[in-house]
Design a protein that fits this description.
The protein contains ten helices and no strands. The chain has three domains: 79 residues, Up-down Bundle (Four Helix Bundle (Hemerythrin (Met), subunit A)), CATH 1.20.120; 40 residues, no CATH class; 38 residues. By secondary structure, it is mainly α. It starts with a helix and ends with a helix. Helix 1 runs antiparallel to helix 2 and helix 2 runs antiparallel to helix 3.
Length: 214
């Protein structure tokens, strides 16, 4: 067994253990940390497959952006996790069935020689760029699926904005046109107030003078 195979099985075991810990631990923050470990381990497996660009993308996008959002939501929202776990055993048979089907499908793919996955990945040449090869494949052979995926993501963004953009009475909205056309006289108003003389000190001084004369 080669050193690369040892690393693959080691990373695979850590990845499986981290994935199980994500769905079994009770603390949501601990689950997020185990998910970070799973992402890092998956990135290591990508490196073993000579996919450096995908490994760096996995770390930068998921660990650097998505996990920060997960932690922000978990730590800012007061979520009742005990109530969420009430239906765990009720949905366990369906979840176990789906998991078994996924494992069987993955095993069939990994053990099938027709897909070319049973052999280990060959090391690329030293002058071959992983990013360049990936870009050439995406924008030549898979250009149409890549563009369709971008259109689907764009539609999802527009749908999310349309669903959340609702008119509410308690919400204050900004009118950019009025803010641009605003003038100084609309924002600042100078009010002239007559000056008032404090008569109390003068009255006290007069009473003090009369008292000294007496």
């Amino acid at each position: 067994m080669t050193f690369q195979a040892i690393l693959f099985y080691l990373f695979g075991a850590v990845l499986v253990a981290a994935g199980l810990a994500v769905i079994t631990v009770k603390n949501a923050v601990h689950a997020a940390m185990f998910l970070v470990l799973a992402f890092f381990t998956a990135a290591g497996i990508w490196l073993l497959l000579y996919a450096e660009f995908l490994a760096i993308t996995l770390i930068l996008v998921y660990v650097g952006a998505v996990m920060v959002l997960f932690l922000f939501v978990v730590m800012m929202l007061d979520i009742n996790f005990a109530k969420l776990r009430e239906g765990f055993w009720r949905y366990l048979p369906v979840a176990a069935t789906v998991a078994i089907v996924m494992v069987v499908e993955m095993a069939l793919l990994l053990t099938s020689k027709s897909f070319g996955l049973a052999t280990t990945a060959a090391a690329p040449a030293a002058d071959v760029s992983n990013v360049k090869s990936l870009g050439r494949v995406l924008y030549t052979e898979y250009l149409l699926p890549f563009e369709l995926a971008s259109v689907v993501l764009l539609i999802a963004i527009i749908a999310a904005i349309a669903l959340t953009l609702r008119t509410r009475k308690e919400t204050k909205y900004q009118n950019m046109g009025e803010q641009v056309r605003v003038k100084a006289a609309d924002r600042l108003k100078i009010v002239k107030v007559k000056s008032e003389v404090d008569e109390a000190p003068a009255a006290s001084a007069t009473s003090a003078g009369e008292g000294s004369k007496s």
